[in-house]
Amino acid sequence: MEKYKFLDSMGLFIIALLGEEESSVLKTIKFAKSLNCNYASFSFATPDTGTNLRDEAIINNWILSDSKEVRDSSSLSALETNELSKENLKKLWSHAY
Fold first, then answer.
1. Which of 16, 26, 47, 85 sits in a 20 to 30 Å window from 57, CA-based?
2. Are 2 and 32 within 8 A, CB to CB?
3. 2 falls in which pLDDT band (50, 70, 90)?
4. Average pLDDT for 27-50
5. At what angle do helices 86-96 and 22-34 cross, to 10 degrees?
6. Residue 31 dihedral angles phi and psi, to the nearest 5°
7. Phi, psi values for residue 81, rounded to 5°
8. What is the C-alpha to C-alpha distance for residues 11 and 13, in angstroms, rounded to an integer?
9. Is 19 left (phi over 0), alpha (psi -120 to 50) or beta?
10. pLDDT grade, residue 84 (50/70/90)?
């Protein structure tokens, strides 16, 4: 392992995927922290044009009115589902860091 002592690790995690509830987001955060990565990034699932996520979000009216064209999923959620409100998502994202 001596040859890897200067190797940094990075974890990239997506939260608020369809069907996720607060408990599963918290499990993801707990898992991410258990990895002891040097760097970690938590991003929200983003309903990009042309994706199934976008289609389902439009049908279910999950896209937040003030985020029709959100491109920064690292600190803003473009979705709000029955399970995860905008306020709850902000709280969970803050908990990740």
1. 26
2. no
3. low
4. 90
5. 10
6. -60, -45
7. -110, 175
8. 6
9. left
10. confident
